[in-house]
Amino acid sequence: ASTSRKGAIVRAVDADAARRFRPRTPNMVRLQGEGKFCWSLKNFSRLHQDERIYSPPFCFSGIAFMLLFFPRGNQQREYVSLYVSVADKTKLQPGWRREVHFSLCVIDQKESLCSVTKSTHGELSNTVLDWGFTELMPLATLHSPNHGYVLDDTLQFTIQFERVTEGSVSGQRPPHSTTGVRTNGFFS
């Protein structure tokens, strides 16, 4: 990406998807360089702790994605959960599959060396719409006064894509997906 795009707000690829998944809190997703996006989730203390929160859509490798965040974990109440998710499954062609390699990070805004980063890879498809971490980090660490994960009531995440390619890494059920898991009374 060119340096003139650095810091630009990533626009929704699909206006309908942006409206459907618009979060209840002011936030934004910024392009940070080729394949790297930053989500600033503001008013963190006002979030209902049992809900799932979607970032605004952003595009990489021609695909609209969002980050999916569970403030009190996805069936792991002592952790926060974070996933990359396909923004609009209605736009996917039958048989659509993409192998994704990426890192998710929760930024320590006081001491960047203490940021929590985890890398993974998996396959997204018509039936597996998200991939990430059920146990990204313990809630106790997130809220610790010794760290700056929540600073000025804002939480910051980044996603860094290594690559997104057509194809299959396996035909097995992914261990890092929320698809088919009952969450907040709904199936993913």
UniProtKB/TrEMBL annotation:
This is MATH domain-containing protein. Residues 34-161 form the MATH domain. SUPFAM superfamilies: TRAF domain-like. Pfam families: MATH_2 (PF22486). The lineage of its organism: Eukaryota, Haptista, Haptophyta, Prymnesiophyceae, Prymnesiales. The keyword Protein biosynthesis does not apply. InterPro entries: MATH/TRAF_dom, MCC, TRAF-like. Residues 167-188 have a biased composition (Polar residues). Keywords: Coiled coil. Residues 166-188 are annotated as: Disordered. The keyword Coiled coil applies. CDD domains: MATH.
